[in-house]
Amino acid sequence: MVMRDSSKLLVEYFRRCYQADSHDLSLSNIARLSGNRRVFFRERDFLASGELPRVPLVGTSVTKLVELTDAYRKERSLIYSVFLISGELPSQLGLSSKRQLCAPLLYFPARLCSDEEYFVEVNSADLHINLPLLRLILKPDIDSRVTDSFPIPSFPLDSPQVAAMGRWLEQNSRLTGIEEISRWPNLQAVDCDELGRAPALAISSACALILADRSRGSRGVLHELKLLGRERNFSAPLNLALGEEVVDFLQSDSEPEMLPGLLSEAQERTLQNAAKMPLSLVSGPPGTGKSFTIAAMAIDQMLHGNTVLVVSKTPQAIDVVRQKLREDYDLQEGYVHAGEKGFIPSLKFHLDSLLKEGVEAPEVSAANLKRGLKVTLKSMRKAERRFNGALRAAQKLGSDGFAAWLVALRLRILGRQLDTESLWEFQEVIGTLRKNFERHASRFINAYRKEALLNLLKHERRHLSAFNQALRARTSKTQAEHFAQTNMQVVLQAYPIWLVSLDELNEVLPLSRELFDLVIFDESTQCDIASALPALQRAKRAVVVGDGKQLRHVSFLSVAQQQQLWEDLGSLEELPMKLSYRDQSLLDIVSDSLGSQQAVTLLDEHYRSQPELIAFSNNSFYTDRLKVMQARPVASSERTLTLHYLEGKRAKNGRNRLEKDWILEQLREHTHRYADSPLKPTVGILSPFREQADYLASEVDKAFPADVLRSFSVLVATPYGFQGEERDLMLLSFSVDNQSLRAATYLNRADMFNVAVTRAKERQLVAYSISPESLSPEHLLRRYVDFEHEVGLSAPQKVFPCEFAEEVSASLRMAEVRHWVAFPIAGQRIDVVCEYHGRVLGVDLIGFPGEYRYHFTTQTYKVLHRAGVTVLPLPYASWKRDPENCLRRILAVLKRDHL
User: Taking the mean position of all CA atoms in its chain, how far away is CA 533?
Assistant: First the structure.
């Protein structure tokens, strides 16, 4: 598409998509609205049928409706609704069992006009289908994408159109009484309050004028998209995301080595990209430390005097980042986030405390702490170089191609040059230096922040005080006036890290170009493109973090509607896939826009789960690229992953009672087992199907006291409710049986299945009632059931790769030490892994002429350190000279708590 000012036109296109996607109004239950915000029409639908251009409004409530419509122009919208769907719907939220619907199927924007009396008119060119409502009322076995086939009505409505909608509802929805719409355009006399209490889902031939609430978040997004369309200049990240070239942007510096926490190479590259590139992407599969990496990026940039905004669609994701800042980095000052009462109340509390109580000066200055850190870092690097040199020396003492007698001679002559104790002491020195560095790094971060705040309070306190007064303004109008006069740069110096959900962003920060040095998007697959554009405008540089193999944002916009919106902007071409609002997430459009793979980083170290729990996902979705950091030899008879075939039956309502009973039994056993434990292992209960998940939630709520469910943090939901969540124990109910193969096709959705099977940290128990043989060989559930989840993790060693390994193994066996040869941990095969009372120790065999000649690099030692595994280097020369002493040293390290 060739257009003048194409970026602005794209912003307008995405704004229209967002508005048409039914985000604008809250229409799930109009029965909750006060009576003066709704007027029902009697006898006949003259407006939607096109019989009259306007109809008079009569009754005592009309005057109040007119007043409310005028007073709340921004917060509310007047609509004319056609066909009401009402009744009880099982809830998808938490453990609440039911929710009530009373919502229109179709609606037009409406306006009031006065000509001696009040009349109502509709915008006949803007007929809306309540697509979120359609998804809620689908039959359990119906894929939600069927809403794309809903007959799109046009103005004026007529009987054939209404009949087509009725046939679709009969085939795909759970509604009763569908024949009632056949009386249209004649109307039923209805009582909205009674409809709001109706038990069965039904549809009525009713029309009403409704003053509906606009969604708070969507209202702000739409407002900012409109403002964005008037901007003359877009930020560098926004231009790039929209396909424009960027020449100039502001770079920063990065020092990952100064942060507490040993970062991986991928994480360090992420931090460098955030500092040096206008737009970059971080792909983070499940459990690979996305939130930890985001926190590291934020602190790294804060230490260079930069401001950082972290945004996400979900408050849960934001809260996890806050937790990482507080717990993993011990950051005490410098960030703001939404508290229990919301963002602004939380900011008021922090700022008021700062102004009234001040900040205590650090005991040691940030400059001195930083100098000490650099000295420690220099010592650590020197020790690493010496350690690496010793490893090379150990390797050279053995050599391929020499006769055995010559190798023995070399060992007698050169072996004394290598002192095994010294080699191991290098490692201890490095470990001690690392612990000291970690301890002092967090002190440096907090000292830096305290000094910055002290300086602000000394020189710029009046600006912070003015901002505090703005936050406490009684009206939004007064608050907006104060905000307009606020020096936001001073505020951002006081609080350089902001954690905000996208729906709150417009309420707490002005739409100013490049307001922040860095904007980070978390869970970007769940973020639609339109919502992200205002946040991108606030960025000098931006990083988009997510996983294309997990669930995307849900859009109700049909393909036909989207194409029409595209054509309305003057294009005669088919909409390019990369600009599809309904199918593309923020992650997708950014990936399509990046010109170099250097801007993309894959986080490949998986920390969340035991290896059996991530093995299928790693193999099926990530081509075995994930290094499983929790891999350990199996020392327990309790299996981490258990699949249970049940002969359950899926009822017509989508419920599987036998699987429900089994889930309750497992939950009961778990809560009894850990009833007296001070730390309760958390529990998640998941079914891919909404009806089964709601059924499980209701039954769990009945069977267990609320305090028990809270103490075990029990969450019952579909995969959509679990994205971004994790639990120690996951209980899965797939629900389908051999008679519900149509429903089983939904289980073959890769993004949904990937999320479903990767939430567990320690154990996963799976119930299924369908014979795998009834599914195609490529079906994900069949592949999951047939997969060898535990292959190679506990198998005894049968064939030794070399004599060195065999000798060490024999000595460990005689010492009655459990051990494994060539055991995989963190993407590495450790030569020998020993286990004693839960403590794991790796042994790196070095220098034997053959399989185990080569030593691990220092980077590999760091990887294994991050995985929590100590590794001792064992030179062949030392073993041949004094195997008993080497064995004693291994046992000594294995049997003590710390090096």
Answer: 19
Q: Which of 872, 851, 782 is nearest to 421 (CA)?
A: 872
What class is the 634-786 domain? alpha beta
Which H or E element spans position 120?
A: strand 117-122
CA gap 222, 214 in Å, rounded? 11
Say how many residues make up the chain: 899
Q: Would strands 516-521 and 539-546 be described as parallel, antiparallel, or unpaired?
A: parallel
> Do residues 434 and 442 make contact, with C-beta atoms less than 8 angstroms apart?
no
The CA angle 827-833-837, to the nearest 5 degrees, is: 120
Instruction: State yes or no: pLDDT of 748 exceeds 90.
Output: yes
Q: How far apart (Å, rounded) are the C-alpha atoms in residues 171 and 149?
A: 12
Which letter, b or e, does each residue of 225-254 get, where b requires 16 or more Cβ atoms within 10 Å of its Cβ? beebbeeeebbbbbbbbbeeeeeebeebeb
Query: What's the pLDDT tens digit per position in 801-852?
Result: 678 888 899 999 999 888 888 888 877 888 888 888 878 888 988 877 665 5
- Give me the pLDDT at residue 69, please: 76
Query: Where in the chain are the domains?
Result: 25-214, 230-244+265-334+496-603, 340-364+460-491, 366-456, 634-786, 803-894
**Residue ranges in 460-487 assigned as alpha helix (H):** 461-471, 476-484
Which pLDDT tens digit goes with each residue over 437-493? Answer: 888 898 999 999 999 999 999 998 888 888 888 777 665 566 666 666 778 888 899
Q: Domain 230-244+265-334+496-603 carries which CATH code?
A: 3.40.50.300
Among candidates 535, 526, 541, 528, which has minimal Cα distance to 579? 528
Cis check: omega of the bond before 185, within 30 degrees of 0? yes
Q: How many CB atoms lie within 10 A of CB 888?
A: 12
Q: Is 335 helix (H, G, I), strand (E, B) or coil?
A: strand
- What is 803-894's CATH topology? Endonuclease; Chain A (3.40.960)
